């Protein structure tokens, strides 16, 4: 079993930066695909960024590409989301998620699919003021 705990959310002005952290328990963290999703009021939970087990492959939603950076430190069992140039439309609860890559799904498909993830954190709220 994997437990995920997000931190780093808060209130920031437009144009500012935040760094989210996701601390994972479990002995097999390094073998998991990790992702960040977000959910704003009245909207579906949407993919933000993902990273494969080694960190060699990263994936981003078009809406955050060039502004957000996902990274992982397997020695610390931690995944990060560096968020720069924040916009009011980035306001949401951000969730960390983890999945072992399953047969039948390619990495590029699985990383962005919400239902492919097996473990979820409780979320951390990010509010960007205009």
Description:
The protein has 130 residues and is mostly beta strands. It is 3% helix and 45% strand. The protein is built from one helix and eleven strands; from the N terminus they run βββββββββαββ. The chain has one helix at residues 107-110; strands at 4-7, 10-13, 18-24, 33-39, 46-51, 58-60, 68-73, 78-83, 92-99, 119-120, 124-129. Strands 2, 4, 5, 6, 9, 10 and 11 form a seven-stranded mixed sheet that branches. It has a four-stranded antiparallel sheet with strand order 1-3-8-7, with no helix packed on it. Strand 4 (33-39) and strand 5 (46-51) form a beta hairpin. The longest helix is centred in the C-terminal third of the chain and has 4 residues, at 107-110. The mean pLDDT is 94.
Helix and strand topology:
Layout: E1 4-7, E2 10-13, E3 18-24, E4 33-39, E5 46-51, E6 58-60, E7 68-73, E8 78-83, E9 92-99, H1 107-110, E10 119-120, E11 124-129
Parallel strand pairs: 2-11
Antiparallel strand pairs: 1-3, 3-8, 4-5, 4-9, 5-6, 7-8, 9-10, 9-11
Summarize the structure.
The protein has about 130 residues and is mostly beta strands. Helices cover about 5% and strands about 45% of the residues. The longest helix has 4 residues, at about 105-110.
